C-alpha cells in the first residue's frame, strides 16, 4: 500500500473519522509487517504535532490579569446611607484582599504540586534489599529492583499512551494492546523509553539512565527531541551530565537482571563502582581505609539477599577486613 494512501487513512483514524473498513484495513496492514507499526507511530507523531489537543492562551490571560489589577476600584454602596452616595474601599482593605488572595493562590499551587502525584498515581515501592513483581491493569509485568518507585495512573490508562514514571530500576514485559496504545516510561529527567511491545531492563537513578533490551524494539526519547531506536541485545546508557548516548552490546541478558534472583553481577568492576550498586541496593555507604582498595576489581555473581552475605564473600575473595557502623561499611586491608 502506498505511503500517501495509508497516511490519509491513518490521519482519518486519528481524527476519529475512519470507517469500519478503513479500521480493518489498518489492522491487517499492521499485522503484515513489523515495520508498519513503527510507521504507524511516526504518522501519529506527525498528526499530533499538526493537531495539538490544547493550546493555552498564556499571553491573553496575562494581559487580562494586568488589566484587572490596573482597573480603578468600583464604588460600593453603603446601605446605611440614605442618599446612596458612592463609597470606595480603603487602600488598606484592598491590600489586605490582594494579600489574602495571593496567599491562597500560593497555597493552592503548592498543594497541587505536592499532592497531584499521590492523587493521580498509585505508587509501587520497594525497600532496600527487596524486589517486587507487579502486574499492571493492561497485563504488563514489572519486576522492581530494590529502592525503586513506580508511579502508575490510579484510574487506568487512557488516551493514546500508557504512561508510567520510574525512579529506580525495573524489568518490564510490556503487553501489546488492541488499540495500539504506546507504553511510555518517564523519568525525573529528560529521558524516557517508548515501547512497542517488548521486554527490557530500565535503570533510572542519579548516576545514569540505562536500558538493556532483551526482546522487541524500543525508542529512547531524550534531551528535548533526540531519538534512538534500540534492537535486541543493545545497551544504551546516558550518564549524568552527558549529552551523548553510549551504545553497546549485552554479552548475556541475565547479567543485567541478576537482582531478580537476589544476586549482584560484576564484570571486572572496581570496588569504587561496585559501592554505588551496593548503596542503591542496601542503602549502605562504603568507605575505604586505603584508597588503593577502591581500585580492586570484582567479577562474577554474588548472593545478595542480605548485605552480610555479600560482605562475607568480599572479605574472603579480596582478603580485606569489613566492619560496619550503622549505615557505613569500612573496608580495610588485612595485616
Describe the structure.
- The mean pLDDT is 80.
- The chain is an alpha+beta fold and 335 residues long.
- The N and C termini lie far apart (75 Å).
- Helix 2 (20-32) crosses helix 3 (34-50).
- It has 3 domains: 72-120; 126-253, Jelly Rolls; 262-333, Phage tail protein beta-alpha-beta fold, CATH 3.55.50.
- Strands 3, 4, 5, 6, 7, 8, 9, 10, 11, 12, 13, 14 and 15 form a 13-stranded mixed sheet that branches. A 3-stranded mixed sheet has the order 17-20-19, covered by helices on one side. A two-stranded antiparallel sheet has the order 1-2.
- It has helices spanning 3-14, 20-32, 34-50, 58-70, 91-120, 271-282, 307-318; strands at residues 76-77, 86-87, 121-125, 132-135, 141-144, 149-153, 161-173, 182-186, 191-195, 199-204, 208-215, 218-222, 226-230, 234-239, 246-249, 263-270, 285-288, 297-303, 320-325, 328-333.
- It is built from 7 helices and 20 strands.
